[in-house]
Write a structure and sequence with these properties.
The chain is mainly alpha-helical. The chain is 55% helix and 0% strand.
Length: 97
């Protein structure tokens, strides 16, 4: 039987570093990665969605460290950030931060 993992273990990558959960840092990383994907001719939205849904870093180019950057963020927090901002912007609902 596998041992249960703690929340702190789930919030780290293979190198044992904690993942970024700060909303402002997530916004900056997503913005930077988006720009780097666009420069390389990819559809940035689809590539980022692919990564966030699958945790497969090959969706993100290595160009200028984009893959390394995006692998530092907590995917659950990034998805939460994206959905909350969509709801705020598109549906004009008041959602607490």
């Amino acid at each position: 039987m596998a041992a249960a993992t703690s929340a702190s273990q789930e919030n780290t990558r293979s190198l044992g570093r904690p993942l970024i959960t700060d909303e402002e840092q997530i916004r900056q990383i997503l913005t930077d990665v988006y720009a780097k994907l666009k420069v390389k001719g990819y559809n940035p939205t689809m590539q980022i969605v692919g990564y966030l849904l699958t945790d497969d870093p090959t969706y993100i180019t290595n160009h200028e460290g984009a893959r390394t950057q995006i692998c530092k963020i907590d995917r659950d927090e990034a998805l939460s950030y994206v959905v909350a901002h969509f709801i705020k912007a598109e549906l004009e609902l008041d959602i607490p931060d």
